[in-house]
Amino acid sequence: MTPEQRRARFAAVRLYLVAPLAPGGRPLIEVARAAIAGGVDALQLREKHAGDDAIVAELRQLRALCDRTGTLLVLNDRPDLALAGGAHAVHVGQDDVPVAEARRIVGDELLIGLSTHDPAQVDAANDADPAVGPDHIGVGPVHASPTKPGVPGVGVGLVAHAASRALPFVAIGGIDATNVAAVVAAGAPRVAVIRAIADADDPRAAAAALRAVVDAGRPAPDPRS
Fold this sequence. Notes:
alpha/beta
């Protein structure tokens, strides 16, 4: 795929779930199945402690679910395992594998996302050569989150800045039912959540409530444009 084709694929995403192998002590496949039924259309496996074989095996199981439901499957940090497990995308941080190196590993078919935390990083990602830059970015953490202890929230101002640039982005960080409307109002056409769905008693209902707010806000870009 060309960079434009990869970015168009991400453009249709509205609600993005990030979760470990056992969210809330439950198998990820069960939580993912319910969350997708509620409106999640991108799923990222973020697992810092499991071995490589366990991550690849989980990705392969999730890929079967995602193929049936049209859900984008993403792995955090590891482009090599994303490729081995059949993920559609890999997401890296500022201090992880550089985007150019990740592209060398995964080739042209997988999408690459990059975390950004300030306007300079957002601008650098947007200004990068599309052949070697990220296909999309994560913007945040919008609010402080236990997932990133000690990291302050950047607020919705960075969301608005990202919305003023062309590269597709997803807002992330402490987003839940109490604040998602403000994030969408700031210009986020899609949001990523962790605990608000992964730890919910009813992941399907939690996803449906969040998706309704996102859908009621600014529409996602037309992937055909």
